[in-house]
Specification:
Chains C, D: Its main location: membrane. The complex is a heterotetramer, with one copy of chain A (506 residues), one copy of chain B (293 residues) and two copies of chain C (338 residues). Helix content of chain A is 32%, strand content 25%. Chain A is an alpha/beta fold and 506 residues long. By secondary structure, chain C is mostly helical. Chain C is built from 14 helices and two strands; from the N terminus they run H-H-H-H-H-H-E-H-H-H-H-H-E-H-H-H. The complex binds adenosine-5'-triphosphate (2 copies) and magnesium ion (MG) (2 copies).
Chain lengths: 506, 293, 338, 338
């Protein structure tokens, strides 16, 4: 079922894919308003825009997931009407979704080739061939993941790589990548870029969504900017500076991206000694002081998230001690951690963060219901509404109202809601695991400013990030991990990319 | 006239015959309309059905009680609304204190199990046994008839002439043929030997027969007894498999109840208790019953 | 957002959304009006203009309704409670055995007759709660699926009900005990319980935690909620309400029987789901459940009213349950997000 | 961004995992050995060394097993099928009415007696399939929860079963028809069906789609799977198997009754869940379901063998169901990742 013709127009295509005057409305939100976009063969076209600008929505239209309220899609000069993802796939359009979309209890190979499994003569799935062709694909893409393991056992980054491999395996003409690098560290990003360059040279058109400026300059040929569901403009990426793009995106200047302030460092607040979790990590020792930001860097799967989870009591340690203000404490569950003034923004917002079926306020107030905001078990609704409203204004959550279900928010805005949840607790110790994942530049600056402010107020901060510039820009000290061990702790003054990568690969 | 009927259950073979007897009879009467409801074995549902009947303004109500201990509030509801009420088949606990315009039509459950067990006892005696063991298959434990019929077995075996019989097993198969068959197979596999099967109803007795046959046991070696004289049971008896069953005149109860209800609705007086006797069925008198239930 | 540099997010309009129950309420109204219309056509009577019928419509489902209030909370946490019907039978039997009057011939405990009415009431609620605590503890601490834990309780509790008096009904209850099942008392209890838990779910921390656990248990745990403890609470409440339902059932029938409450769990779950509670957890409201319950009652009364043959009643009932939810879904259909 | 050919994931360990069914198989063995032991102590007999008992242990649950094979597939898609027990009753009634022998006194269709045996068989399978297709279509196209769609079918199909002959049983079936319920045929049918769908689930696209939809419907959809069409297939198969179960039940009892199959759906779901199928969807295997089914059968036989009082049987059965799953869970417990 190749491109369904809508009219008798003669294919005479300067563009591989063209969207004209697309409009999409959700109840209460105009996600896209009169948007157009052109994609050429053999180019990487980046989409830029704040959280909620409508990028994902537009891509979902192209991938056959949403039907636009109005507007046309033209593929290879032929107007087409995509009614389902299958339509899109059969027309040579594949997409990597912003949120991971894998079947957790199936193997990597089964996930990649679902619906296209090789069959034996008798119509049964040929598992040997299935695994073989996955190996081949992985070899081509230089990915090292066992095709036979269940996806549920993979780390987020590995899952992201599986998604990438799956999208590539369709051998499509148009490949859409919606923030494919938000869960990746620099090594994999470099790796992904190698893949992209290869695909580009084969004449494939790639639409690439990212919030990371440096990626734009590195990989994109041209880019389009969106703001509030409207199309702002398209430029060659060699023509503009980063500040100009930011201005196009947010409609105002953003002064400083990593507004690190030197603040007086206080007493040791959190002290971790010989912390270990059987078979996952061991020998983790570090201190964090009031006002200090401790960055944790490392490759994917190096165990950074596990350390954070253990400190917060999600997976209690098998040995070692955690002390707060000099007192050894037994953090046996998150409840205990919260009682000791900790807050923890987890890395996987879908799995451990959002209450998707509930509204923004219900999500934001969750961690503070334990204490201040209840009387005789009754929730003091007005007080809570006020603080949640204030927090979401501060974080620039883009939504018509706090009654909106979190499910309907764009990814970045969901992240902001989660950050808001934990900032409301007024923590003494703040643990951030990939806090700016999927967040636009404006909001990122905002979050960095907030973190700095908190540090100034004497909060001890632990920040895990796969974005080296962020770790370097924000941290007072950086702990680097490799295979479940700390390979070194660097001071702000001595740290740079090379040293970190060196320790991370050791 | 409209008569509301609440049956304890629709998927019970015996009650189906009763219900159909009542409906067929109503068909022969001019201007009598029946509204038959299925209480699905639920007391509360039955009470609600009565209230729904009252709200719809029926002329009389016939109840086949799910729980015979729960009839007092039902009588109360009907009496308050001034609507005549007839209990059928199952004896209400408040029989002696039934309000005006209420009656009871049934057979006496004490007889059913007694007739069955006595006949089994007679057959065993006739076979010259001086010691015999039987297995008892009970209906649903929460059901009054199951308890009464089981009690009857015990009572008969307590009499001197039948005291040579011992009960080796007593289990429930929930009135069901399938469960009956499985139960007997489980017994046989446990090496339990018995001379007779005394079942609370025919369905379980047929299940027992099927299991015995499947195990290769000759049917003249074991006496099997049931209650109800359903078509399937009579066929089994004709085939020489079932030895005893007890005929309960279902259709007679049904029409009797309807007559009583209509009479009460017309302001006539009716006996408070109308008894329709149980009758023992054996291969000897089988022919008399084959066209009945 | 053209120029101003300091423009924050656009001003919020606190949209007062129409409650989702509205749509299922419309379904209820639709069903009732259909009966009304058919009534005039076929029976020549009004369906609704009948005090007695309006009462029985709710009265006959109030026991299911009481259970459904508890079951709704369990479902909101993402669980299920199959044991409620059996717990009704079990508590009815046990509580009734402490409520027998002195002049009954064969009491279960001859030494314990004519006790003050609060004793059977407390016993009933305690037994229900205990069953719930067992359910909740199994689910919380052994991590077995709620389906299995409550299925086990369903089978065992029914066994206890039958074993308790070897299947004999427990009758001859004191008038004080029977009073709670008298007249429209069951309706009052049902609506009272619904009101209490409506408030609890919407305005208390208990409610917020219940929704949070259902929406995303992992997130709830990371946010400091003690899921284990909370689940035990929720199942305990569901058990207590099933116990209460057992008391009301026994009082209404003035006897307790081991078979009481069979299949009520399904009716209760159906009422909750018809009322908009999602079996996936995280969504649902007591008001919806109340409406769902009344839909079930309206159907039963409507069938008798229209003198629909019992054989057809079930067939039609199944269809209406489906149609009600389809209609509701259709009205609520938002543009679907993949 | 130094090197490119850096290995990304941690070094892989090729773990050949033991199948998860192993743990539930151990539970089955444990239960059987317990009965064996108790047998020697209290009855002075072996529980297992008895051909007849081993047969009945499976025979008595083979109908539930046939249903459970279909229900397992439904549950893997993340759905549920409450209608299977009622569909058993409905198909038993209707199919049996085409299987009556010429010498039966009161056949349902006097003109249609002594038909060749394939007619009732085809009728039975067709009716079951039809019920399944209706379930699946409702779920796919109206988006109502599977619980409601199949609950509606459960109520309606039972209604049809009762209405079909106004509650009269359908007896006097031809010997050819009865043959499929004779001896260990039900066991053969059960295990045959299990084998077929074990292969279908593991080695065909049908199976992959079934797991994919249950594991993550969004992912399945964006991968181009037509979820609607596939769900209809799965429910149709479940319906067909329920129809087959109805045929076997009627043949085994040599009669059809409207009340056949009541509560079988719960036993079937229990068998699947005990066997490791997750109600959340995406996980489960037919082998596990077969073991789960046999656990149920072993229990029933074991109770009779040990001569446990009927009143205690249910109480204990509930506890064993829970204990079996707890034991399984305990053995399988992996480090929990929040
Ligand atoms: N299913 C939906 N229902 C209601 N509103 C929606 C839905 N999907 C998206 N929206 C809204 O549409 C707008 C655009 O969302 P979209 O996901 O396209 O943003 P985005 O540009 O991809 O943002 P991000 O960078 O955060 O991923 C947002 O305001 C979002 O809240
Ligand atoms: N519960 C668990 N049991 C066993 N292994 C686990 C568990 N959780 C994580 N792991 C493994 O431990 C390693 C470290 O994972 P972790 O998520 O902490 O890494 P990370 O450095 O944060 O990387 P990422 O960027 O993927 O989050 C990974 O290989 C992961 O597969
Ligand atoms: Mg997006
Ligand atoms: Mg991590």
């Amino acid at each position: 079922m190749r491109a369904v013709r809508e009219s008798g127009a003669v294919p005479n295509a300067p563009y591989l894919l063209e969207i004209k005057n697309a409009r999409k409305e959700f109840p209460g939100v105009v996600a896209l308003d009169d948007v157009s976009l052109q994609l050429r063969r053999g180019t990487v076209h980046a989409l830029m825009g704040e959280n909620g600008a409508g990028k994902s929505t537009l891509m979902k239209i192209i991938a056959g997931i949403y039907v636009p309220d109005s507007g046309t899609v033209t593929l290879r000069g032929v107007p087409i009407r995509l009614k389902s993802p299958l339509d899109a796939l059969e027309n040579g359009i594949a997409m990597i979704h912003q949120e991971l979309n894998l079947m957790p209890f199936m193997s990597v190979a089964e996930n990649i080739w679902i619906r296209r499994e090789p069959l034996t003569r008798f119509g049964f799935v040929d598992h040997r061939q299935l695994n073989r062709q996955t190996e081949e694909l992985f070899t081509r893409l230089n990915i090292d993941i066992d095709p036979e393991v269940q996806v549920s056992t993979l780390s987020v980054a590995s899952r992201q790589m599986v998604e990438i491999a799956k999208a590539v395996s369709y051998d499509s003409d148009v490949l859409i990548m919606d923030e494919p690098t938000s869960a990746l560290t620099e090594t994999e990003v470099a790796h992904l870029f190698a893949i992209i360059r290869d695909l580009r040279s084969q004449g494939i058109g790639i639409i690439y969504i990212t919030h990371k400026m440096n990626e734009l300059f590195e990989i994109a040929d041209e880019f389009s900017v969106f703001r509030d569901g409207r199309y702002i403009g398209t430029h060659l990426s060699t023509d503009v500076t980063r500040d100009e793009i930011i201005r196009m995106m947010v409609g105002r200047e953003i002064t400083q991206l990593f507004p690190k302030e030197v603040v007086p460092i206080g007493e040791v607040v959190l002290s971790v000694k010989d912390l270990a979790l059987n078979g996952v990590f061991s020998d983790i020792t570090f201190d964090v002081r009031a006002g200090e930001i401790l960055g944790i860097a490392g490759l994917v799967g190096s165990g950074r998230s596990n350390v954070a989870e253990t400190i917060f009591g999600v997976t209690p340690a098998s040995s070692g001690t955690i002390s707060i203000n000099g007192q050894p404490v037994d953090i046996s569950s998150p409840t205990v951690a919260i009682q000791h003034g900790m807050a923890f923004i987890t890395e996987d917002r879908k799995e451990t963060g959002c209450l998707l079926s509930l509204d923004i306020q219900e999500n934001m107030q969750l961690a503070v219901l334990q204490d201040n905001y209840t009387r005789f078990g009754f929730v003091t609704q007005n007080k809570l509404s006020a603080v949640c409203e204030e927090m979401s204004q501060k974080l620039r959550v883009k939504t018509p109202s706090l009654d909106e279900r979190v499910e309907n928010l764009s990814g970045g805005n969901q992240q902001k809601v989660l950050i808001g949840r934990w900032l409301l607790t007024n923590p003494k110790i703040l643990i951030l695991d990939e806090p700016t994942r999927g967040i636009d530049v404006g909001a990122k600056a905002e979050i960095h400013k907030l973190v700095t402010q908190l540090a100034r107020q004497g909060v001890a901060v632990i920040m895990i990030s796969s974005e080296l510039p962020e770790v370097l820009g924000m941290s007072d000290r950086i702990m680097v991990m490799h295979h479940g061990r700390a390979t070194g702790i660097l001071d702000r003054a001595e740290a740079d990319q090379v040293k970190i990568m060196d320790l991370a690969a050791r | 006239e409209t008569v509301g009927v609440s049956m304890a259950a629709f998927d019970d073979n015996f009650l189906t015959v009763l219900r159909n007897g009542m409906q067929d009879y109503a068909g022969t009467l001019d201007g009598v309309e029946l509204q038959v409801e299925d209480a699905q074995g639920d007391v509360s549902k039955q009470m609600s059905q009565i209230q729904n009947f009252i709200a719809s303004g029926v002329d009389a109500i016939i109840i086949n009680a799910v729980d015979t201990d729960a009839t007092a509030p039902m009588s109360q509801l009907a009496a308050d609304a001034g609507i005549p009420l007839v209990y059928v088949n199952r004896q209400p606990v408040n029989l002696d204190t039934l309000p005006e315009k209420q009656a009871f039509v049934a057979s006496n459950e004490v007889d059913s199990g007694t007739l069955e067990t006595k006949e089994v006892c007679r057959l065993l005696t006739e076979a010259g046994k001086t010691e015999a063991s039987i297995v008892v298959m009970m209906g649903e434990l929460s059901n009054q008839a199951a308890r009464q019929r089981t009690q009857d077995v015990h009572d008969v075996l307590a009499t001197p002439e039948c005291s040579f019989i011992k009960i080796s097993e007593e289990q429930t198969a929930n009135w069901s043929r399938q469960q009956g068959a499985d139960l007997v197979t489980n017994w046989l596999s446990a090496g339990i030997a018995f001379d007779a099967v005394v079942a609370n109803n025919d369905e379980m007795a047929i299940g027992a027969i099927q299991a015995l046959k499947a195990a290769g046991i000759a049917m003249d070696a074991v006496i099997v007894g049931g209650v109800d004289a359903t078509q399937d049971a009579l066929a089994a008896m004709a085939a020489g498999d079932l030895d005893v069953t007890v005929f309960q005149n279902a259709a007679g109860q049904g029409s009797g109840a309807l007559d009583a209800a209509l009479a009460l609705a017309r302001g006539e007086t009716v006996e408070r208790e109308v008894w329709i006797p149980f009758e023992l069925v054996t291969p000897a008198n089988l022919a008399d019953y084959q066209s009945k239930n | 957002m053209t120029t101003t540099s300091e423009s924050l997010a656009p001003p919020r309009v606190r949209r007062r959304k129409l409650p989702t129950e509205l749509s299922i309420l419309l379904v209820l109204v639709g069903i009732a009006l259909t009966f009304e219309l058919l009534g005039w056509i076929f029976v020549g009577q009004s369906f609704l203009m009948n005090q007695q019928r309006l009462t029985i419509m709710i009265l006959q489902v109030s026991v299911v309704g009481i259970i459904a209030v508890g079951v709704t909370q369990v479902i909101i946490t993402g669980g299920i409670d199959l044991s409620s019907g059996s717990v009704v039978g079990m508590t009815a039997m046990i509580a009734a055995s402490f409520a027998q009057s002195a002049d009954w011939a064969r009491p279960v405990y001859p030494a314990l007759v004519g006790l003050p009415v609060f004793i059977p009431l407390v016993v009933g609620l305690a037994i229900g709660t205990l069953a719930g605590v067992i359910n909740g503890s199994l689910i919380s601490y052994t991590k077995i699926p709620p389906f299995i834990a409550t299925l086990g309780m369903m089978v065992s509790a029914r066994g206890v009900a039958k074993w308790y008096t070897k299947g004999q009904p427990v009758s001859g209850l004191t008038p004080e005990f029977n009073f709670i099942g008298f007249g429209i008392w069951p309706v009052v209890i049902f609506l009272g319980v619904a009101l209490i838990f409506h408030i609890a779910l919407r305005y208390t921390r208990y409610g917020k935690f219940t929704y949070a656990i259902g929406a995303n248990p992992q997130a709830a745990r990371v946010s400091g909620i003690n899921i284990e403890k909370h689940l035990i609470k929720v199942y305990a409440i569901a058990g207590m309400l099933a116990g209460l339902a057992g008391l009301v059932t026994a009082a209404r029938a003035q006897t307790a029987q081991a078979g009481m409450g069979v299949m009520y769990e399904l009716d209760a779950i159906a009422a909750a789901v018809i009322g908009g509670t999602s079996l996936a957890g995280g969504q649902g409201r007591i008001t919806g459940t109340v409406i769902g319950t009344i839909i079930l009652g309206t159907m039963t009364s409507g069938f008798t009213f229209l003198r629909i043959d019992a054989y057809y009643q079930e067939i039609i009932k199944g269809m209406i349950i489906v149609a009600a939810v389809v209609a509701d879904q259709y009205r609520q259909r938002k543009r679907k997000k993949v």
